[in-house]
Amino acid sequence: MSTTRRSLLTALLAGGLSPELLALGLPIDTFAADAPELLPLRGLNGENLDASAVVEGRLPAALRGRYFRNGPGLMQRAGQRYHHWFDGDGLVQSWTLQDGRASHRARFVQTTKFRAEQEAGRFLLPAFGTAIKAELPVRGPDSVNVANTSVLLQGEHLYALWEGGSAYELDPATLATRGVKTWAPELRGMPFSAHPKVEPDGTVWNFGTANGRLAVYQLDAAGTVRRHALLDVQAPAMLHDFAVSQRHLVFLLAPITMDMAAVRAGASMVDAMRWAGEQPTRVLVVDKADFSKQRSFEMPAVQVFHFGNAWDDGRMLRLDYVQSTPLPEFNAGARQIMRGERTARDVSTPRVLQIDLASGRLNIAARDEAVEFPVVDPRVVARRHRFVWYPTAIDIGARWGFNGLMRLDIDSGARERFSFGNDTVVEEHVLVPKPGSTREGEGWLVGMGYDVKRRRSFLTVFDAMRLADGPLARAWLPYAVPYGFHGKFYAA
What is the pLDDT of residue 29? Predict the structure, then answer.
């Protein structure tokens, strides 16, 4: 190695970059060089993060509690880098907000897979989007569980969630991993998705898919399984989210199949998935009171990752969601960003689906804003709602990601937006009700972002009904955190 190259490497490593990238055709001095907003996707190497944040502005005194987030945090080992963003090992973050101060902690979920690979110093097991030859037995989904998508807190039980396998329980105070959660003996090893819906009374609804069947769960606020069932509905090869109304569970079953011959030949699950765009997406409506009562409708093929909310009056069922690009294009983009390359500007956009349950007639209202990660006020989950909040892209040009926030009134179509400008990437934000308030939307919008120039992550707080006024406060970290997927705020 030349003196110049050695000096460059030393300087880059001092800046926190990983030497593993050198062996991947992704030299660390060029990774994301033309897309600096992608630098957090380099990931960490398994280390812990702890810091007190520097608050800019003023955090509301009544905003007290813990904000948990989850997402892929480790992307490469020993010269091998994951090909797909969904593959990274789960990194759970905890923000503690109290008395106008903010502190941050992040820990990797100590899954069976993570512990074995940390000890070996290399990948040992296949991933969702990366074909890796198994060096350990794969006895079921939990053998490859990365626990990297979302969180759920019930009492003093915090769960890291991944749609393909079991929940992992963590200590909510320390984020130490306690182990795999089994909700009931007969449900051992059954997938428990990353998008449980929690009604205002604490009732939890969730699902999981396995071999074309759909498991549905109803839990109480304490985490006891009240009902569950296994439905033979020819579930697609990938089903990420669902919606819950007063009377129904609603699933959009996209035309995605799995080429098992490709899997047996060594392909990753992503590479073995087939998108049949000429086939319809099936709208499955399941009665909450009796899982055996089901209705099915059809709509044009559509890929949906995330729902906002749903409500019904017994005759009309309405739900809002974000329509993504079809699976092949989405997966191609997920691979590009893992190479430090910007993707094409195909965007995901808001939709409202209305189903006349009496006639079977469907109506879809479409919008063209670039959005994702929709959230609603937690007090209106499975209830009549009016507002949905999203990260959004506003005049962002070729840059990757979102740079703003949007509130949409789905009754009137009116919107309110705020842009941070093109040097910020905005992640999912959640609605935190103000203590004592009852009106929908009366609260704060809390979430994370990344400043491209400072190379630091931050937490931001908005008045949820006054986004255009800008943030009330930002809490700056002394480091960057890999981009996450989903989080929840739990008031103290």
Answer: 54
Q: Are 473 and 55 in contact (CB under 8 A)?
A: yes
pLDDT, tens only, 139-183: 999 999 999 999 999 999 999 999 999 999 999 999 999 999 999
Q: How many residues does the chain have?
A: 492
Instruction: Say if pTM beats, i.e. exceeds, 0.85.
Output: yes
User: Rounded to an integer, what distance in angstroms lies between the CA atom of residue 295 and that of residue 305?
Assistant: 21
Mean pLDDT estimate for the chain: 93
b/e per residue, 43-59, with b = 16+ CB within 10 A? Answer: bbbeeebebebebeeeb
Q: Where are the beta strands (DSSP E) in 38-116?
A: 49-52, 54-57, 65-74, 76-77, 80-81, 89-98, 101-108
DSSP 329-393: HHHHHHHHHHTT-PPP----EEEEEEEETTT--EEEEE----B---B--GGGTTS---EEEEEE-
Helix (H) or strand (E) holding 269: helix 269-272
Question: 3-state DSSP call for residue 250?
Answer: strand
pLDDT (tens digit per residue) in 80-94: 999 999 999 999 999
- Return phi, psi of residue 120, to 5°: -80, -25
Q: Say if CB 266 and CB 272 are below 8 A apart.
A: no
Domain spans, the chain: 19-491
The SS3 of residue 406 is: strand
Q: What local confidence, expressed as pLDDT, does residue 30 receive?
A: 67
Question: What's the average model confidence in pLDDT over 245-267?
Answer: 95
